[in-house]
Amino acid sequence: MQIGWCTLNCRFNQEEGVGDTPDSYAYDGNRVRKWNVTTTNYGKSWAAGDIVSCLIDLDEGTITFCLNGQSLGTAFSNIKMGPGIAYFPAISLSFKESVAFNFGSRPLRYPVEGYMPLQNPPTADLSKANMLLGYVKNVLSTSIDTQEGKLVQKDSSSWQLHGEPTVLITLAHIFNYFAPLMCKVYLVEDVLMSFLLGILEGGGSVEEHPLIQQLLDLFWLLMEDYEVNECLKQLMMSLLRAYRFSPIIPDLGFQIHYLRLTTAILRHEKSRKYLLSNVLFDVLRSVVFFYIKTPLRVKEAGLEELIPTTWWPTRFDKEGRDEREQREESADERLRRRAYERGCQRLKKRIEVVEELQVQILRLMLNNKDKGTGEASRYIFLNKFRKFLQENASNRGNPTVLCPPEYMVCFLHRLITAIRGYWDEGKRKTLGSVNSEEAYVPPQLFYNGKVDYFDLQRLGGLLSHLKKTLKDDLASKANIIIDPSEIQAATMDDLDEDEEGGAAQRPFGAAAMGGALARPSWLSSPTLGRANRFLSTAAVSLMTPRRPLAPPEKVKVRTLAVEQRTEEDIEGSHGNDGLLLGRPLEEPDQPITEKSLLEILDGIVMMYNLSVHQQLGKMVVVSDDVHEYAVALKDTEEKIARCPTKRPDILEELQKSQKVFAEKLNHLSRRLAWINATIYSKEKMLDVYWLLRVCIRTIEHADNTGSLFAFAPEFYLNVAMNSYSALKNYFSPSNNMDELPGYEETLTQLAAILANHFADPRIVGTDIKDSLMQALASYVCYPQSLRAVERIPEEQRVAMMRNLLAPYEQRPWAQTNWILVRLWRGCGFGYRYTRLPHLLKTKPEDANLPSLQKPCPSLLLQRHMAELLSQDKDMAASFLNSVLNQLNWAFSEFIGMIQEIQQAAERPERNFVDTRQLKVCATCFDLSVSLLRVLEMTVTLVPEIFLDWTRPSAELLLRRLAQLLNQVLNRVTAERNLFDRVVNLRLPGLESVDHYPILVAVTGILVRILVDSDRQGVSRAAAVLLSDPCFQLHSIQHLLGESEPLPPGLAPTPRRSKTLLLTRLH
């Protein structure tokens, strides 16, 4: 982004922007440079939420920039001036960048003496508004003493609207002139907002300042509705801008000040409902009020004073413990750490003040008792919140429409705190109801049409498809009958993209005060319209058979679009379950006092899936930077200690580097303190953990409904997997997962979900099935989560292993094979390494990858595998045949690719091998090794599959195995052959291709069938191996380290070959 000034002569395009032409001048705070054809260093780095002032002095011919009111110095002097030269504001933006301009239509946040805005301030109106406001203040601070018959002064903070008629008549005259002025943004921000902020400056809680409530009553009484509406809209927009663009100071005073006024305004019922209905989600992005921005410039935010002593934590592994051996801290380190922690605690307490105000605002929006002036606030919020989710779910490719993910993270945490508070309040009022610790979303919300899931994918596919295929199950299990003609109508409607839907619907967003807004564009969207047309046209009959004294009564209902719902549709009434219509027999009938909280909870889960998880992963980069700089600093200090005294030049450079690293670490450690307090604190971790448990319970309850599980949205499974990943990978360095309440049980529950559903036929989506498989593969890589898999019920473990042993054809098999390999790693021949021996000297790009974890085999799951393969001969044969087929394919592809690579490398002309080809080649090699390891695992656990020839497929499997082993040995063991030459090239991307991993895998199989078997098995295996046409003795000699051929006198006869081979293998 480059911002500045240009003349009309400038011509810009995709390549050249402001500052790239002779008559344009720009400042770029991202690159910290100024631009006028050439570029030089200038100014400071800017961040989102900063205010840049662009000053041009046409008397002196200079251009200056200010950042948040602080001058950055003169950027350009002697700019071109004279006849025909006129300068205009200009900006160049990159993709996803945005900026808001103020040319003077609003008061400048940082006015500079001697400079004027492009738009002159409304001086006359400003003077008039201040004068009239002065009159209002005088009236508020004056009362009539009826006994004395005179005016007396009083404290305006105690003023009440219901007073003397004379006072009201006087105010009505004033407002006759004052009200029209309060529709102008400049006057609202400069006059009214300043006045209201002044009322709260005295301190104390917002409740201690009732004057703002009285003033809002006065506004609604003495102003026209359209005037109050415009005034409140401009006031909230001004507050949001003020909050968003205020700089961070140590006590967060600016943010607290604006949030207090926002709270005071929203405490007024009529104003709150109007703002919820028409402003907070429609005109402005109210989610900004729940965001606490992270300061980029630590010094300006006052973090140096708040956290004077810095410290950086040691690196933790994925299980939450230090990677290195525990060692005692030195006294100096302990003092630094404790001082740093005290500073972090001070910062956290100040941030918590802001968070508490934000939660108060949300609790006001979620008030469901304010029914005096129409629909309660919560139900207005609920419909707006659903539309907000729809916009963010349906515009994933349009970043200008999406809510920024950093806002979503803060909004999610505040919303969790608010609804848990309301949930537990309801629990205290209703005995037997579910408390927030046991919260979940009942499965009927997924199929009764009461909650709109837009066009989001269900586990079983599209909603219209599920309604048709599972209509009988809906009738028998949930007492929901779908009219076949309505299903057909919905199907035809899906095909008709141009048909207008919902012509008879009420206008969207009808204000609680009366009036209506125009039909929003999203209702006309073909994609979104289909889901809404289905929901609004499908006629659903619901039966309530749980009345023992009467026959089932059919109730004809019509599913409404989001904006048409009323409180009764959500909360229910006598004979109407509201959101819980269609409860299946498997679902317990537990009272939930406020069903609207279920929909908010469902929205929170959806919100986490949309962008929160992605943002949590992004912010970890600061912690990673701290670690990298700490390693660099330690390395530099060690070099300084080893530096010879004869090289002062080297010592000087090292000391400069040390200073740079130390300064960067001081800066980053303070930033990390802020991020840990706002994003990765213990409280935020508990929020994500609570969300994980909500998803687990929801999935378990939905699973109990049998075929109706297909109606559950995919994002519940995604959030269950991703929230666990976030707890493990993003929060663990600063908080220990083991301290979470019920953590072991939760791990086991999640393990059961992964084990039960990775091959669930009710789940049809390819992406979600792949995600489940990858999550299970990652789960078995870590000891703690692997033990959780071993704790699930035995029948579930056996079923999981049975699914893993299904034939590899017709399904993605690489991840399945990977899981089996991880269960075996640590037990195989030469298979106890974490990283390949030849790669130990190189540093891995990411040591935290699941594939780089220490081996942790599962003997229990290996036993289940052995029992299954031993008992089910047909399954064993089909499984091993598929493994052998895939091994044949993977190794053949690998050999073909290295031939192409070798030919390319030997060409005399300069050439480059495609990196994608190298990656695929390495992948085929890794697949070959892992398939060999699965064969080793199988032949070790169940050798009779190959060696017991009473089994019908044993001899054929053994011959196929011998053939493949000989092929691999012949290709890999010969010196200076194709494989050897490619390995010696050491091409980047082929680091994992080496002799060791594939040869030890082959050796493990040979040892098991030729050494560790009984006499009859050894005899059969040796005979098959030697009789294979591909068998070459020199391959075995190379495997045993014998480079020279055997002496002629020892040349074995065919009979002695078996004995010699066995001896050498020993």
From TrEMBL:
SUPFAM superfamilies in the cross-refs: Concanavalin A-like lectins/glucanases
Chain positions covered by the region annotation Disordered: 564-587
One of the record's GO molecular function terms: ubiquitin-protein transferase activity
Domain B30.2/SPRY: 1-108
One Gene Ontology cellular component annotation held by this UniProt entry: cytoplasm
Record carries keyword Zinc-finger: yes
Pfam families noted in UniProt: SPRY, TPR_RNF123
GO biological process: proteolysis involved in protein catabolic process
Entry keywords, A to Z: Metal-binding, Zinc, Zinc-finger
Biased composition (Basic and acidic residues): 564-574
Name of the protein in question: B30.2/SPRY domain-containing protein
Species of the source: Aldrovandia affinis
